[in-house]
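Data card: per-record layout.
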Amino acid sequence: MQRERREEISRLLGERPFISFDELSSIFPDVSGMTLRRDIEYFEERGEVIKVRGGARSMRFISPHGDDNVNRRTEKCVAEKKAVAEAAVQFLETGRSIFIDSGSTMRTFARYVPAGRFSFTTTDPAVALELARGGTSVVNMVGGRLEGENQTVTGLQATRFLTGINIDVAFLCPSGYSVEDGFTVANFNECELKRIVAEKAKTVIMMMDSSKCDRSLPYTFCTSGEADVLVTDYAFPEKLAQAARGRGVRVVIASKNDSAE
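The structure for this 261-residue chain is written out next.
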């Protein structure tokens, strides 16, 4: 019975981007709502759906390819990322629970982290390895499903882990930023994870180079006014900086000298 029901649910998820619990209840009137939720959790653990309010979204209709993969991004805006990384180091504090995001900007940032007794959590294996080189910091690697394109850990296991920890300071990196849509990414899984971190963190520090300005991707994980600090490079438009300050965000502009070797 369970096998046949889950086969039917799998078929439905292959045909449509979203299915609601109400629809499932009408299709399977003799099955309890709790059992149907367990079915959806089963598919979520397999990486086939994302459970959302009222139902589930099929991963077959969620494309993770709205941005370059992390290896290609590493080769872009190199000087700007170095400048942003050096300017963001001032916000590191020992004795605090620090989350460091995934991505090319954060990999650059990890190389500038000074030796010290920090407590880090990250979803990026490359960031974790870099942070661990000093030998004095505690580095926690979030478990879950590794996204091939972005080389970041996402999924149900990752979100459950992050929901259960305390975060003092979060260093996050968006794929796009606009005043209207806030800080955005192309991948729904990544958005959900970043959103949880942004909500839990006492201080949210956004790190981004100016190439991401006025760029809006499908999923917003943090609005313009929800960040505490925005660290960016010297080419960041003053109009956007003023708009961010108007929403209570501290804007830190890295100088050109910060990108020098």
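Known properties of this structure: The domain at 2-61 is CATH 1.10.10.10 (Arc Repressor Mutant, subunit A). The mean pLDDT is 87.

See the next section for split statistics.
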